[in-house]
Amino acid sequence: MSELVVAGFDGKFKAEDALQSLLKLEQASLLVLDDAVVVVKNAEGNIRVKAYHDLTEPVPELGNELWGGIISAVVFHRELDIAQGVFDPDFLTKVEASLQPNSSALFVLIQSGEPAAVLTALSEVGGAVIRTTFSDATQQKLQGILQ
């Protein structure tokens, strides 16, 4: 079971800073990141997505298509009908509200580790943290919808 954590930031570059903080925790063996994505919304409202993947040992089930589905669902409420029960509607609404023009968000799938260390690292960068569980069943359901 993983946890999907989204941290929203007022600045366009703060999500990258937060990712660096989490990578330092991973290096210190305080957590294991399955995957991460930085989303930036510019002044015109355009969304840019930058994925962080481990290229030496990629996690095939967390490919670009799956991340595209997650981003579409939580940022735009597209691709996936909320009624399908993949994500909690309250979670989706909070994430969408956090992405204002000239902002960024860090989407992280955390496999294991110390949640307090993750929250502390994100709060030091000034992010508003939104969390939800991302079970294997949820992941399989999302993959089934995307196919």
SSE blueprint:
Elements: E1 2-9, H1 14-27, E2 31-41, E3 47-52, H2 64-76, H3 89-98, E4 103-113, H4 115-125, E5 128-134, H5 136-146
Antiparallel strand pairs: 1-4, 1-5, 2-3, 2-4
Helix pairs in contact: 1-4, 2-3, 2-5
Q: What structural class results from the helix and strand content?
A: alpha+beta
Q: List unreliable stretches of 5+ residues.
A: none
Q: Name the helix and strand elements from N-terminus to C-terminus, one letter apiece.
A: EHEEHHEHEH
Report the portion of residues in β strands. Answer: 25-35%
Strand order of the largest sheet: 3-2-4-1-5
Question: Gap between N and C termini, in Å?
Answer: 22 Å
Task: Return the domain count.
Answer: 1
Largest sheet: 5 strands, antiparallel
Number of helices: 5
Let me know the number of strands: 5
The overall pLDDT average reads 78
What is the helical fraction, as a range of percent?
40-55%
Shape: globular
The radius of gyration computed from the alpha-carbon positions, rounded to a whole number of angstroms, is 14 Å
Brief descriptors of the model:
147 residues, single chain, alpha+beta, 5 helices, 5-stranded antiparallel beta sheet
